[in-house]
Amino acid sequence: MSDMIISAAEIAQRLEQNPPTPEQEAIIQAPLEPALVIAGAGSGKTETMANRVVWLVANGKVSVNEILGMTFTRKAAGELGERIRGHIAKLVKEGLAPAEMDELDQATVTTYNSFANRIYSQYAVLIGRDPDATVLGEAAAWQLARSIVKESTGEVLSDLDKSLDTLTDAVLRLSRAIADNVANPEDIVAFARSLDEHTVNMPVDGPGSRKTAAVDAWVKAREVGTTLPVLVDLAMEFAAAKRRQGLIEYSDQVALALEICQRFSSVVDDFRSQFKVVLLDEYQDTSVVQTQLLSLLFAQTPVMAVGDPHQSIYGWRGASADNIEQFGAAFGAGIDQTRTYSLSTSWRNPVDVLAAANVLVRPLTAKTHVPVEELHAKPSAPQGELSVSVTETIFDEAQAVALWLKERVNDNTTSALLCRSLKGIEPFKRALDEHGVRYHVVGLGGLLDEPVIVDLVCTLRVLHDASADSELVRLLTGARWAIAPKDIVGLSGIARWMSERDHRQQQLSEEVRKALKDSVVSEDGASLVDALDFVVSASETHSVLNKLSPEGLVRIKAAGEQIARLRRRVGVDLRELVTIVQQELLLDIEAVANESAATALSSLEAFMEPLSAYVDGEDRATLGGFLSWLKEAEKRERLSPQSAPAEPGTVQIMTIHGSKGLEWDVVAIPRMVKDELPGNRTRAEHWLGFGRLPFPFRGDALHLPVFNWRSTTTQVELGQNYDEFVEEVRVRYDDEQRRLAYVALTRSKHSLLLSASFWASQVSPRTPGVFLQELSEAGLFSEPLPQAPVNEINPLGDSEETVSWPLDPLGSRRDVVLRAAEAVYMADPATPTPWDSEIDLLLAERDRRINADIEIPIPERIPASRFKDFIDDPVGVAKSLRRPLPERPYRATALGTLFHSWVETRSAATSHIDLVDAHPGELDGMDESSLVSADEATLRALKETFERSQWATRQPVAVELEVNVPLGESIIICKIDAIYEVEGSNGQRFEIVDWKTGKAPKDAADLELKQFQLALYRLAYARWSGVPAENIDAAFYFVAEDKVIRPERIYSESELEERWSSVTGSMPR
């Protein structure tokens, strides 16, 4: 390596970049040793890391392909990788790169999870794991965990009084926490049982005390002691099921990658030899297990970690704010001996916004054990705008926020409304609508709030759940049926009437009715959904139907019949079911026709993405499982960083957690009141909750509060220690809320509004929160904050708003829609219109499709597997050729293709297949019936069956041989699976074998059609090899059934040509 030094400043000048600041220069030119960079929000860390790579390469310190960069999201990894590639390209162009440098070399920039996956995929076999394990997405993991919980038994589980979804959530959370913290399940169970034994007979208080009521802390400890072992067992069953099915989660990948590196030092040596310099971005968000893995791989090597302890806001997913403080111990010679650098110039925030952010973060800086410099604005930074609004009610606040945004948002402006929680955003959405401000609730939560999606999901819930009364009411009172409130009351009366009767409609005795009432929650006794079904089937003369008006009865019957039809389709593929519901309810038509619902159609299309993600996760995807997962997915997604690009002219509404890493010109942060931002500290979570990993098993346990339960002898003592423990937890929660607010404030590039109001739905007023108070005390607002509301009693409590319910489904569009409908109804069909010519063309096309004898060109290239379709159903093929429709996209993997690929690899024979340029329709065996979920267990079973077959020990002459056979004016594409020399024939006879992973022919007629494929293969191989056709045998091997079928006779070449000629000549044209 060359010792020549080119300074960072000189490189910047040569590459026509801005000169680095002294802080940046120190980082770029840092020695090759472990180093920590504390980079504040918007401080240009991506550019600085890219420039360090350039400096290292230009000075010959390291080759570009020996550099590894890691960050959390694919978006961030893409940005860093693109920045590095761009700078390196300029370096080469300017002649600053080393002469020996290969222009094709690139730095490796990836995500932390992808890097762990790389280790796992390469070395999983060392620990007896499948390197090709399928990565479980959120949907599939939820479904698998739910099925395990659903099938589990046990008295403790049945006594928990927890819903299936709550148990599923707990099992998933605990399973991932065990993996993220490399915890031993047996130790966790022993800990819980020890807690149970210690508290089970614990007296309330000492001798002489009159206290008898159980202490709350004791109740919580007892629940943990009794339920945690059960949940750990379920988490282990979940882990075992994943392994059996060849599945793996991201958290598993990291934990297993760590296990590989701990057990095999050669793996560590391999990665150390590959990468001489490592850059770790967003280091404050790494989990304990990620840190252990990276430390094991790269400790004492040139690792540069970049992060900001003040932006550590993902503690719920295993990240620890204390992690960054331990970098020196993990990678260097010690905390005090490891170099620390700073990036303290904000290139994003204006002066006033930055001043506010610094005020909020100072208490955190005082607690942090690594030096964190206060951010200062760039030299040319504008003053910016910091506004505050404190109003009387939440509706006043929403109006103020909407007006503020309206004045600042235009088609060239990016903007956001950032909330700690999206639960209370309805007043703000209504205010934005009222003032004509475009907005978009980002993510799945926003999608599920779209009216057309609400109708769709409500329908799915009604189909699944007989207690989905509120969802049914929405549908019945909506635009489709427009049932009046009086008839809804009547339907409710029918439901009550039914709840008092048995299946023969005989009234139950008073004793039975009372027992039923006492055994269920009140709303479970009568079901509107059941009542709707009854109305459909009841005789029109039934007296109970008198509760409905004549018109109401007609509409409710129509609604019930339609829902009954849909319910009969519940067993079909969920994607198909959702499409049917859309069409039956005319949601797709409404989406196009309603000009005020501009996003409705795109929302319907977007809904298919999470649905497909769920369906692809497991073969047994159910409607109930999807609906429960949908709620969980929405909750998780709102806490995760978003990658949605800014939308100029549109206010993006999202959570503060989702905004991490993003920026906007204009930002508003509402509800900065006590118990909202910052949040209510009494809700701080700790391990004495359902399905939580006890703190002693967390990787950062040394930095967490300790609950001293072992030394207590009474419930009162336990409660005292618990209160001390909880207060320490709440202090940490306060710090987390402060970091959250800091992240929110530093998203703004120009204008920032902080808003609050005293009254919402609560009894007591909520004063401006501590963050607003601190900013006011620092003199950042032009006027002091009001400390008390004008009204001593909630003014919203006594106010009455007259609302016409149900809301008019057509709203302000009613007059226009009715006039249009009447015009259509009254129109004379013979009246000329501007669209007559187009209508005539459409009608003519329809007539031709039905009656006309038009010419249908036969495709030039036809897969051998489709040949039988031309023979069996020429009319059907002709129809499909007349009006070809796009096939439904499948994300599932073709199991047959995977098996064929395995056989090909195993055979070690020359393959003649070329799939790169092949059209999907040309691939043999890729019909719809062959597309199935790539269940690893099924694939493994196919492999095992093949290994026992007669062909397992034989060497094929060729595999996956492609031969094109001219037949008439078409070319038949034959892709032959395998050709074997018949034993003892001395190279004179051969057998073609076609592997089938599906079912064997159901009858002789089916076999007759399938054997056309073998006949074509025999003809193809005969022409290709020169072997006489009569010396070539052919067979099907149905691997799943371990069944070999050899047709009694195979069509000859002349017979094939005759059948083809007769079919193509007689096809409707």
Tags for this entry?
40 helices; 1069 residues; globular; 47% helix; six-stranded parallel sheet
Q: State the share of residues found in helices, binned by percent.
A: 40-55%
* Rounded radius of gyration (Å): 35 Å
Q: What are the low-pLDDT stretches, counting only 5+ consecutive residues below 50?
A: 518-524, 885-894, 909-934
Largest sheet: 6 strands, parallel
- Form type: globular
How much is the average pLDDT? 82
Count of alpha/pi helices: 40
Distance separating the two termini: 74 Å
The order of strands across the largest sheet is 3-2-6-7-1-8
> Strand portion, in percent?
5-15%
Structural class: alpha/beta
Number of strands: 22
Please provide a written account of the structure.
With 1069 residues, the protein is an alpha/beta fold. Helix content is 47%, strand content 11%. A six-stranded parallel β-sheet has the order 3-2-6-7-1-8. It has a six-stranded parallel β-sheet with strand order 11-16-15-12-14-13. Strand 20 (990-996), helix 39 and strand 21 form a beta-alpha-beta unit. Helix 9 (185-199) runs antiparallel to helix 10 (216-244), helix 11 crosses helix 12 and helix 19 crosses helix 20 (469-476). It is globular, with a radius of gyration of 35 Å. The termini are far apart. Residues 518-524, 885-894 and 909-934 have low confidence and may be disordered.
